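Notes from hallway chat w/ T.B., transcribed later so I don't forget. T.B. wanted the structure written out for a chain they're using in a teaching module, and asked if we could keep both sequence and structure tokens in one place. Agreed to drop them here.
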Amino acid sequence: MSLAQKTIKTAGNPLEELSALLAVDMKAANALILKQMHSDIPLIPQVAAWLIAAGGKRIRPLLTLACARLYGDMSGRPYGLAAAVEFIHTATLLHDDVIDKSEERRGRDSANVVFGNQASVLVGDFLFSRAFQLMVADGSLDVLRILSDASAVISEGEVMQLQTANNIETTMAQYEKVISAKTAALFAAACEIGPVIANADKKAQEAMHTYGHNLGMAFQIADDILDYAADGKKLGKTVGNDFREGKMTAPIIIALSQATPDEKRFWNRTAAEKSQTPDDLPRALDIFQRTDALTRGMDMAHDYARRASSCLAGLPPSALKAILADLAVYAVERDR
């Protein structure tokens, strides 16, 4: 009996259930991740391990494993690709923290604070290179195309985010384009390569790509809402970081669409000019409440979650299908 055919209880935390169902696979993938981040230069595994061994939900490599098993691949082939996906993700985090001058990641000092910006950037480059070595070792040009295309799109997303940062004229369409590139592209690729290596047809590959894209959109929009609404200790981050950095995310864009002249001046000062006082974040939260910005943002995330779940409609009933459908909801409702 395949993993996709097994029946397990799917109530509760779907990410934990997915980890439990794929525990053997994830153990093998994690072992490969630890092996492949090794280098004879001690600083490289030290910096890499600061993020990789620090926890994290491993949602992207889990999706690669799940989507391969969903379509009947029971080989060890997905392990290397799950590791490649995790390395791409970790590399982007290392680079992001340098760009954003972040001081925390996953509840502790960020790698750039501990090891410096230069080491963080260079080890990020090392992990990108390792990811491509793993793709080449897999031997599939389709897999190489999917993951290399995603890597290029992620870089474009980073540049787009730089262009929209502190720009209060940013539209919702521009914001969604940024997160589509910066976050959803890797979710989509992680899911798409599952049916590719399982030799499933193009329709299956497209369905999983679309599932991953919508899941990634839901995940990132919810994350941007949770920056203002969640328990910071649960998320491993300081609430209000996006506000302090002047990032144009869904809540501010929604609030700006209904801003009074005084509120427009407030956003111009705090976001565009980044001139802030300790009283500004509470006022921003009051504005969000008046404009219903957080609820409306979550409605957007739920819409993407529903689209993700609909991509699974054509699959036969299975434990993996049920968990992946639940995961779309969890992506929005986690840590609330």
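Follow-up for T.B.: Residues 4-11 have pLDDT under 50 and may be disordered. Might be a good example for the class.
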